[in-house]
Amino acid sequence: MSGPEEFTAARARARAGLVPRLRDVRAVVFDTDGVLVDSARLHAAAWKEAFDACLRAHPPDDPAQRRPFDEREDYRRYVDGKSRLDGASAFLASRGLRLPEGEVGEQPGTDSVRAVAADKERRFVARLHASGAPTWPGTVRLLRRLRAAGIPCAAVSASRHARELLEMAGIMRWFRAVVDGRDAARLGLRGKPDPALFLEAVSQLEVTAPTAAVVEDALAGVEAGRRGGFGLVVGVDRVATPESARDLREHGADAVVGDLAELLTEVPGSAED
Fold first, then answer.
1. Is residue 212 a contact partner of residue 230, using CB atoms and an 8 Å limit?
2. I need a surface site. Which of 46, 86, 122, 219 has the fewest CB within 10 A?
């Protein structure tokens, strides 16, 4: 066997190496931070520094709400997967703070929502350039298997740094489309849990949402996949608390995994590169 027939057989073997629910999808859309690239910890640390400074400058009236930002639970519940402005607004509201929105281009600080978001951005960029953001072996294995199976992939992020992160992690070549915060601003796309970013990604891949899968770790992102009518929504639970997997399912995940390698099955002779 050679030529087109051999190529078709290789793709069939690669598809057999995916879990059954992934074998029939026509495309896969991945969130970037926390799913493809280990950058969520950098975002969480930057948010903590920015929010804690704001809480010190504007202590809530209720003493119970003055506690510092929790990098795991507060990040997961209020800011993960959202635009900087939406995330800042959601967390500050959870602590009873109603700061003015502020002006576009406002300098970092603590006196408006935009200033807090700008402070977080400055801190994140410094951390990213200092330490970088690697990916996980299971992520690379899945991307290789999907390409071998002929299933196109897109990367989506509320962050404006998605392309930089993917390049730094060495995985940009696996994606036929990337839709990030810069694209959202240019195209007027609403942030998660609105599905606009995901729908733009499948449009660029020339498939429809019901025939595609979304892979997300953020509650807002999982909800966006459900709202967008995607055929499969996979929640990635890297937090691994008793509540985290349950929350992902309640927000719309059809399946929950701890690592993307769990979406693979072992098939002798399947190609990954």
1. yes
2. 122
